[in-house]
């Protein structure tokens, strides 16, 4: 029955976002002992493990560098590198729930960038969703009542990097291979983080190696699971499941890091999640696939094209 494959896709998507959340918890457990650049670099090194599973029939290894639009491929390269650094910085300095709050502004950033760069028409409901999302951020951050940190800046950069990657995907369209978009993001993390870490490189300890491996390999596992979830369930169904990461963030924050979520943060989370779900529902109505928002991961490369959803090889 048709519902069975969709249910399978939903369950796989929940597993993918759980893997992402544990990946982010691993990098938070490092507690800044390794620089964000070094964490991002080794995370990308371990992320190479996903490549064989993301390649489709007919893909070649050199297709990682192939592209139909080199300027946008390079923009994806740089945006992914910045997003990885921002994500690691956010989870290092903020509670997991607060980091996810800011990163989950990604759908609002996509809306704004789509108007500016793609000249897409945006109705009052989508603009309303953007406003609700930013109101939620104000409730969470409470500027003037609490000190803001580099972690908040990092989370915003992570959201902007992910949003830019999605807008690039939309601009390139179906002519670009998923493996090429994933390759641009992977290489961005390797090269940009690799160069920036040289000035403050420190060889990780055994414990830190385990955490870096968990960060990179679980992120790679999430990428693979998310791709396969899109084989079974449409993006409009998979997209909202991303917000399950917030539940994992609150749970891990409480059990592992001793974080507390107060009433204003709960209200802000509700506004931001509601904003994202409203944006996703409008995208579904328009028939435009909005890839899931994955913190610091290569979400745009996993936006499965319509012809791929039933083509399991």
How would you explain this protein's 3D organization?
This protein is mostly helical. The chain has one domain. Helix content is 68%, strand content 0%. The radius of gyration is 18 Å and the shape is globular.
**What overall geometry do the principal axes of the alpha carbons give?**
globular
- How many beta strands in the DSSP annotation? 0
Number of helices: 13
Strand content: under 5%
Chart the SSEs and their pairings.
Blueprint: H1 3-29, H2 36-47, H3 51-54, H4 70-93, H5 96-103, H6 106-117, H7 124-141, H8 150-172, H9 178-196, H10 206-232, H11 235-238, H12 244-255, H13 263-286
Write a brief caption for the model:
Helices cover 68% and strands 0% of the residues.
Q: What key phrases describe this protein's structure?
A:
mainly alpha; 13 helices; 313 residues; globular
